[in-house]
Write a structure and sequence with these properties.
single chain, 77 residues, mainly alpha, 53% helix, globular
Amino acid sequence: MIDSQVTIKLTSDEALVLSHWLEKLQMTDLSRVVDDPAVWAPIHRVAGTLDKTLPELFAADFDQRLEAARQRLRPED
């Protein structure tokens, strides 16, 4: 079987929030969360791709940008 590629499109807000969550995930005891070693390759690939494409990650006001993105993504009551 030939591996084909899958493209995932995210908004800037979605990418920023996901990137931050993946970073936190990678800093934890992942063996409790990810029980299959095969999952690590795609997790690291997605996280690395986001790190390379999001200049906001290195902005001085990153915390404010992240919180604003979270607020925009949260469903309204």
